[in-house]
Amino acid sequence: MANESRMTLSEVEKVEEIFQDKVDQDIRIEPRDWMPDAYRKTLVRQISQHAHSEIVGMLPEANWITRAPSLKRKATLIAKVQDEAGHGLYLYSAAETLGTSRDEMIAQLHNGKAKYSSIFNYPTLTWADMGAIGWLVDGAAIMNQVPLCRASYGPYARAMVRICKEESFHQRQGFEILLVLSRGSEAQRRMCQDAIDRWWWPSVMMFGPSDDASPNSEQSMRWKIKRFSNDELRQKFIDVSAEQVKLLGMRLPDTDLRWNEGRQHYDFGAIDWEEFRNVINGNGPCNKERLAARVQAHADGAWVREAAMAHAQKMAEAGS
Amino acid sequence: MKDQNTESRSSWPLWEIFIRSKQGLDHKHVGSLHAVDAAMAIENARDVYTRRMEGISIWVVESKYVHASNPDEAASFYDPANDKIYRHPTFYQLPDELTHM
What we know:
A: globular; B: alpha+beta; three-stranded antiparallel sheet; 20% helix
């Protein structure tokens, strides 16, 4: 397969033009097609970080499995967490088609080189957090993921289609948890509002910095591995959530939130980007805990991986 | 503690997974996963790709056994089919009165 370092400048320009042309026409790029090294690198980073986010995202929710208030709640929460594992696997699988390996990606997560979504560095303090996460965090994720179903890279787009199908149960499950709490006792209603108060701004920050502060945005949009700007997606999320919260009889913790008839959108308050930067750089409330849990899980599972390998070899020898 | 990077995880082969979602349909490629052998690959495929009954049959093939045509040579590779329009039914002009054909 042709690679940039072995081609002349005009050859590179020609294949780049063909590549960009395909992207412009929404023709999918598949694993063995030529692609610019930068496209490959950025995709590996984007897809693997998305995968890491799914896997780390299992941790705050798994926290409440043993304390779910009923068997039904426990079963649905387990199913959701299983789905997150599956989503991570679809994405690792897609990333591996680009030439990276599972070992490499896991190592980068464990040594802190790779990032994952900042939202998972917050603690889940009450059962209501399960509802807030399903409604807001999965809601924000869906907003980001639906456009990616038409991303230019085939395996990524197909993984996103699969993920989106499964994600909608997550959001409905979350909202339903809050709905039941909102119709319950005084203590339950307070717990519901408290969870919303703590998860709203971090969810809004999930969409990333404003586009003028986001250096990779433009190139990613040209390559169609990002279809809408951070601000557009964030605005849509806020507009939708501001309506949905009314059905809960709760409020979003933003005193500046108000419908703007002229813009036909909700105006909203200032985001604390200092907090976002802190959290994404490792100083959030749970960063160390999350990473330690991942590293420990990997270490604890070593004997299983080794035993499986030994068993397979034994069976192979016995058979031959 | 033993250096986990050199242990067996990196020698678990990669498998491509194909699922038939219901009777009458073909197996479709859905993705890949790592497993030590075919039995584990099938079980893992069930857990990863059929949580919602999306499959009644699973095929697993080690990725190294999948051979593929070269996309760079697509133009010349598929060229023989390019100008044989007589393979298409629309090439043949027949009277409108002719039915069942």
